[in-house]
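We treat protein structure as text, and this decision shapes the records that our systems exchange. The tokens are whole numbers drawn from a learned vocabulary of local backbone shapes. Below, we set out a record of this kind in full and without editing:
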Amino acid sequence: MDSATILTVSRLVALLKELVEDNFMQVQVSGEIGNFSAPASGHHYFTLKDDRHQLRAVMFRMHNRALGFTPQNGMEVVARGHMSLYAQRGELQLVVEHLQPCGLGSQQIALEQLRARLAGEGLFDPSRKRPLPAFPATIGVVTSATGAAIHDILNVLRRRGSGLRVLLYPVPVQGDSAAARIAEAINDLNRHAQADVLIVGRGGGSPEDLWAFNEEPVARAIFASTIPIISAVGHEIDFTIADQVADLRAPTPSAAAELVVKERRELESHVDHLSLRLSRQMDNRLALLRERIAGLGQRLQGGLHRVASSQRQVQELLRRAEVAMLSRRQEATARLRIAAGRLDSLSPLATLGRGYAIASSVGKNTAIRDSAELEVGATLHLRFCRGSVETVVTAVLPERFQEKSLD
């Protein structure tokens, strides 16, 4: 035997390890979990088996932290990782980096486990759910850019919420990377804080199609969101973990859009109702005022007629008074002229005007009516119609005409 071909155990194990790890750097293996154990170290140890063979597997703590379920014996899974050789024992093992239940039974078990764990942490607590903003200006939508969901949402918002701004964050809604992308979109929209409310969802599909919305990263992102979130996943019969964590659940994307504009639509309807009531009240009030104005107009018209009649009566009375005053004035003037004529005829001045004179003793204002009252040498004052003189009596003559009695 050639000593050069003899290998030590360590060397052979090292060569096998190198061979295995270089040629099986990324493998996916389906099988049933057996001999599962989870020691205090946090690592998971189990075997993957089918009806003929089995393979030892390990999932280190750094990878199993992201699991949304607890592996159990008998669970059908798909394990993704790389092959390695545990040198201390010379055992071939699969180092699992990702574990996914397969088959409806296994997925349902994993889902219920995740649901129970998240519920225990308070992610479904109704007291933490926030109300939607009554009048959002910007609506963020996390869904596929090519799916029916975004078209349904936009159609509803165009009909019911004119003037709203829609911010679409396109993501895959199914497949291995969907959950991580959805969670990233929710986190980004919160980081930029440009939306008032978020709609996260997709149209209907099979349970497998909707599975991304049952995964823990999506649930954590929804729980951590500071923006209220409406979950709109699938049809009414589908109910995901995202629905339970979200602030509000809508059975369809269209229903989510309806909920977003509900308060606004109700307010618009209320305003329309109030406007109609106000319009009717104003019409009734105006009709009543028109009737009152018409009545006042008629009363005013009657009053105007009465005023016009009174004006005519006043004018007639004024005319009569003027005629009467003129007549009385003319009569008074005539009487005054007659009286003036009589007075003038009786006036001494009129007598003087006819050539007579008034004789009075100087210093006395009494007229001398009888020559017998005078003596020769007396000074007289003679008043004529125009002017007066003083004279001295030189002789007293006897009366030529004597008054005779009729007896």
Observations:
- The chain is about 45% helix and 20% strand.
- The chain has four domains: 8-120, 128-260, 262-317, 352-392.
- Residues 352-392 form one domain.
